[in-house]
Amino acid sequence: MENGLLHPDRLFPADHATRALARDLFYAVQDLPIISPHGHTDPRWWGENPAFSDPAALFVTPDHYVTRMLISQGVSFESLGIGTDCETDPRKIWQTFAEHYHLFAGTPSRIWLDDAFSRLFNVNERLAPKTANDIYDAIAERLPHPDTRPRALFDRFGIEAIATTDSALDDLSWHIAARESDWNGRVVPTYRPDAIIDPDAQDFNANLDRLGEITGCDTTTWDGYLDAHRSRRLAFRALGATATDHGHPTPMTADLSIADARALFNRVRGGKMTNGDAELFRAQMLTEMARMSLEDGLVMQLHSGAFRGHSSQVYRDYGPDRGFDIPIPVSFPVALRPLLDAVGMDPRLTLILFTLDETTYARELAPLAGVWPCLRLGPPWWFHDSFEGMRRFREMAMETAGVFNTVGFNDDTRALCSIPARHDVARRVDSGWLAEMIVTHRLDETEAYDIAALLAHGLAKKAYKL
Amino acid sequence: MENGLLHPDRLFPADHATRALARDLFYAVQDLPIISPHGHTDPRWWGENPAFSDPAALFVTPDHYVTRMLISQGVSFESLGIGTDCETDPRKIWQTFAEHYHLFAGTPSRIWLDDAFSRLFNVNERLAPKTANDIYDAIAERLPHPDTRPRALFDRFGIEAIATTDSALDDLSWHIAARESDWNGRVVPTYRPDAIIDPDAQDFNANLDRLGEITGCDTTTWDGYLDAHRSRRLAFRALGATATDHGHPTPMTADLSIADARALFNRVRGGKMTNGDAELFRAQMLTEMARMSLEDGLVMQLHSGAFRGHSSQVYRDYGPDRGFDIPIPVSFPVALRPLLDAVGMDPRLTLILFTLDETTYARELAPLAGVWPCLRLGPPWWFHDSFEGMRRFREMAMETAGVFNTVGFNDDTRALCSIPARHDVARRVDSGWLAEMIVTHRLDETEAYDIAALLAHGLAKKAYKL
Amino acid sequence: MENGLLHPDRLFPADHATRALARDLFYAVQDLPIISPHGHTDPRWWGENPAFSDPAALFVTPDHYVTRMLISQGVSFESLGIGTDCETDPRKIWQTFAEHYHLFAGTPSRIWLDDAFSRLFNVNERLAPKTANDIYDAIAERLPHPDTRPRALFDRFGIEAIATTDSALDDLSWHIAARESDWNGRVVPTYRPDAIIDPDAQDFNANLDRLGEITGCDTTTWDGYLDAHRSRRLAFRALGATATDHGHPTPMTADLSIADARALFNRVRGGKMTNGDAELFRAQMLTEMARMSLEDGLVMQLHSGAFRGHSSQVYRDYGPDRGFDIPIPVSFPVALRPLLDAVGMDPRLTLILFTLDETTYARELAPLAGVWPCLRLGPPWWFHDSFEGMRRFREMAMETAGVFNTVGFNDDTRALCSIPARHDVARRVDSGWLAEMIVTHRLDETEAYDIAALLAHGLAKKAYKL
């Protein structure tokens, strides 16, 4: 490739004049600071600033986008260093990865990986069996250097603020450590209470016991349980949290009477759930979380619609987050109505919606966000965090929702090195979209520049109060 | 903007050669008369020809596309002149509108509004806080003039025929007045019997009593009730109606035995409905309406899939049609089958289908319209009456349905001044689509011109018998 | 048209540079042999090699894409030579077809028909009322010639291998005749056991009796019934079959205990089905078929989601496959899970999924195929075997599934003359897609050429073991 791994015009529209506009829009936003309001970086990175151990541990083993594609073509988990009696030599794992790197042709993963290889490790050749060793060496040699440690990467990436996602039961010690260090990077936790809200979660009752110990609240009663949430939310806020996040199977909400809610809690807590109680409890808790947001100002995020652990065998032998999470159909209007009717017109609430079911973009999410004052649309999530996925989102949601009811970009990643690449892709795709809006005279050029900056930086900062 | 608000090449494809073809196709159809076979203009406008009172009452307060976007960003209904104790100064309402006009960037509303401001009121600057007063004055000063009254606008817009949408219980007095006036514009009513078909409608039983009074039929019996429909349909036909319209929550149809239908009617009429009876009654009535269409030739339209009044509070305090109507998933094949099996092969029936659920375009509606002789596809409806929405409809439905099983464009609006803009957008988007069909050699140039004229004029005229 | 019916650049992107790339990619693959691993050509053609009788019988009467469009615009089945007391003069049927040929503007049928008219019969004018007779004559005159018989067409089309679709009860005599002839074309059967798996099938019990006779197995017991399947699968394999095909209303699967499966079989076989038993039996049988594939290596195909015979009247008077089959919504993750959990990680299984519900491409099918080692995605099916349908598939599925989890193209046709046209369209659309991938720097040019060849030939050959 004459331009190495990264062509400067990548992801821009083909048409000559449109591409020129896209390029100029991109130049105007490419260096804006990164706001990363939702993601899964490891808080230990920020609290301890450790060096990464090796290229396979950095790029292969923990990345479920990578492992899922390899598994789909018959590579074993063991050969990727996952499971009992698995490969332990990172160079061999890397070699397996390189032998199958052609599988990623046309996928977002390849864009992110090539970008990281190129920007951070000066790699200029595509990963392949014959380049595998050289690239391994190029990466491995940089990893011990101070400038490849997490905090240095944070600074090099131009991150203005990053949020992690943390269990409600987490002691947030790494966040405390980061705050107490001499490093000034802004890292904040996000309140993710699934483990104490979802009656189907593993060890749910034990989690509630633990919640009681941590907070000193009586989590055997509905009222004490709600107080315990309030207490934990305050603890998160004290460490900079501006948001909560809820990973529910469906977006169902409920608004029960206090008596009914207490009775439901007692069934759930007492191990006497009947059919539908778990779903109803999760539904009720979304509305309770929204009510608490009115009090404490935390922005609410809802990520629903993933069937987790689609293979029982894989879940049992290799654990969660191995790529076996599959989207299912969802529908929002009926599901969200109880919550919205309860608190949706209150100007203190912000509820950011995410979906894995793109059929809801134009049919439901854009019409909902285009009228309810509390609602905002999160960016294309997970499988849709891609060139085509972002294009579809813009084309299907913007005319009805309007750009001001969106929240910019989330990288949503546990792969640290992919953060700049993901924001780069989003800024390129949005620049291309805006260029086409100009060329078709749906936007003026000046307002397109304003919107480009909002999409890259301003909307996320405002929506997440960062 | 060097070309003012309206660029002559707006909405055409970016590619140079394709744009040139699109422009030529558009020139060939831009001045064809407007057929507006489905919409919500106020019959009083045509019967009385009143002047519009002020810019806010013309462009802001009644337009639910406008109010919904403003509400979504925290503007209050009261500040828009809606509700008790609301703002009553139209200039202040206009100022609020102008301060938030940037929210409409990239939305169809801005295209329609800019077009109306520019064409009708010679406005050449974008509405903004600093231009608000001048634009208000420019509009306000024209409103009393005779050429800005409804009938003059009808003529200026080049409307060949327009249909309103009227309750089955309406006395159609404004239609009579229009006919008896010296004005020759063709305005026809459309039979919309939801209030006497939907058992969940407000005052349903009182509506049926009233229906009995109007028609002299015994609406306490199934047979008398059906006769009353026949009578009202004839009255509508006598005033030029060529169509009926049905706004049902779902497209479910039924074909009960007469005995079962009578029993169902008795339960519904007698206030003894059981679960599912309301839905079943609406379903049965669609088939009855289709049967009556065989007799009287009225074309049938079905608009299903809107969840109306999504906010109880807004509905209670500010009424219907305030932007809180949200699409829900629908599916047609099973739902329509009873009606189709009963009368779908009869050459006398035309049933035009609309959807807010675009997932049905390629999966269901195109395959259905591409085989059932009675079925035609309505244009993209409501939130999908937009550049992207129209493109998706063409791309998803045309290959299987064929253009001849569609019915051209509906403006479907209660915003009179937006009518030419909406037809302009549709003609531009279709010209762009046809240009791409030519460039990719999927259509010959000559047939593309023929199809452009059909989409702009001929198909609507034929399908609606106008 | 200056270039006759077929423009050499048809279906390529409009942008000049992208089109040039597309053209070169297409040149590289246009003459690759055709692998046709799934379709509905008549085995008699291959066994007996008869001449086709007349143009109407070749192009009109049996083609449900053609008849459905004509029916949709009021043409009668009788005038197309279908039904009792129908038109029997093929020239008159042809004239009716020609008079309505404009209806196919912009449809895939026209591309296929024009291609066949042009390539096989040297027709250079569009079919229309005034050209109808000449084109009829041009075709009719070639039909008796040896080079227009099926085996000659097979050779002229450059077919490397073709699979038919055959009832499990078929004696495969035409396949035997083809094998025993002096002709060397590779034609293989496909095991399609719907008639002995679907309890809702006509004569289901009689079919199982017949299955018992053919195989000598006791099909009154679950174990004997399964053995009978094994026996028939072996018979198919002996004649070259590499695949099975399953046409189920839904993709539901089940994995019952042996006791429950036996009891279910007994209810189904004994005419004592209760509600849901038919669906459950089909579901269980998909898992049984997958288990047998582990034993005998047959690749499994699942075509689900068609509502067959949507018009009762048409089905009764004119039979199946008349165009009245309509897609319905489907969802795969929950439905497939029992089968996948049972055998989905086994490297011996290949299960190729097809859908008529495009909403599943990005939401479900790409995520599923992008992780389960057994799963592959079939090409766009039926109504989606079209320019726009193929583009949507590439745009919605490739980023997550990856091209290597797809299986190239299926022509899936019973219209022999359309086979080269269909593969031509697929190769053109894929060349255009790959050209855009290059221009936007999502693929290197060299890998795009490799992928073009895989999509046109290699992936089908490998996935179907042909």
TrEMBL record, chains A, B, C:
<dbReference type="InterPro" id="IPR032466">
    <property type="entry name" value="Metal_Hydrolase"/>
</dbReference>
<comment type="similarity">
    <text>Belongs to the metallo-dependent hydrolases superfamily. Uronate isomerase family.</text>
</comment>
<dbReference type="Pfam" id="PF02614">
    <property type="entry name" value="UxaC"/>
</dbReference>
<dbReference type="GO" id="GO:0016853">
    <property type="term" value="F:isomerase activity"/>
</dbReference>
<protein>
    <recommendedName>
        <fullName>Uronate isomerase</fullName>
        <ecNumber>5.3.1.12</ecNumber>
    </recommendedName>
</protein>
<comment type="pathway">
    <text>Carbohydrate metabolism; pentose and glucuronate interconversion.</text>
</comment>
<dbReference type="InterPro" id="IPR003766">
    <property type="entry name" value="Uronate_isomerase"/>
</dbReference>
<keyword id="KW-0413">Isomerase</keyword>
